[in-house]
Amino acid sequence: MKKTARKFLSFAAVLLTFLAAPAEGIRGGQAFPKRIISLAPHITRGLFALGAGDRVVGVTTYCNYPPEAKKKEKVGSLLEFSAEKIVALKPDIIFATEEGNPPQVLSRLKSLGLNVYVFGKTESFGGASAQFRALGNMVGKEKAAEKILKKIEKRRLKIIKKAEKLDKVKVFYQLGTNPVITAGQDTFIDEFISVCGGTNIAHNVKNRYARYSREEVVRQDPDVIIIVDMGKETGQEKKNWARFSQMSAVKNNRISVVSADLACSPAPVALIEGLEEIAKCVHPEAFE
């Protein structure tokens, strides 16, 4: 009986050790990584928000927030990286994303013996929060992650509660031009539009992100058009839509521009600000 008990306790100890491990991708002998490379802007933002920015040794050229991230060594863009520079930085772990980084590039990094952890697709606010929580666990910042997520959820629920009392308005969300790109179902953008009291006219497109013709937008006659800031092209896009004077969004001057950093970054610390910005576009009378 005692021998059985000892075996059970030994098994339990091993199981607890396994469950307490940070996650797949962390080096066996090192509890938490001290040298981190981030290959995605939202991961970089998340690491700094968690208080692990001092451990980041390399980032992409697109990692521009917070300002401190700009001072970090640049290892490449989202699609191409300098393997030599990455190896020279001696990272304990490299954080990448399934949607943002090419699999062949990540495979090459792994073939060099580098420790690469790839986050999956982000399809909802809940998914983004789960990834942020996982990131916190992997860098030893679980409590910080939970504290941040608790505050974010409070802000999110405040928007939901207010939007529940509002009439639904039709929304078109533009992510790109030439061709026009929008977001469909199974995206946090689609979820945000609904949460804010809107109906995404492109909800039923086949792909999560897809081309959408201007003619179809005109036919659907949205009450609101939201354009993600595209720099110099943004002003021209507003003029392009203004040509369709019969559309409700044009007649009522309901074409808005939102920050790409906030509205397209799957980091909860940015998403909540993006959600609040979208809410002001969809129902300015309630959220201004």
UniProtKB/TrEMBL annotation:
Transmembrane segments: none annotated. CDD domains: BtuF (cd01144). InterPro entries: ABC_Transporter_SBP (IPR050902), ABC_transptr_periplasmic_BD (IPR002491), Vit_B12_bind_prot (IPR054828). One of its GO terms (biological process) is cellular response to iron ion. Residues 1-23 form the signal peptide. Keywords: Signal. Residues 35-286 form the Fe/B12 periplasmic-binding domain. PANTHER family: MOLYBDATE-BINDING PROTEIN MOLA, VITAMIN B12-BINDING PROTEIN. This is ABC transporter substrate-binding protein. It comes from Candidatus Desantisbacteria bacterium CG_4_10_14_0_8_um_filter_48_22.
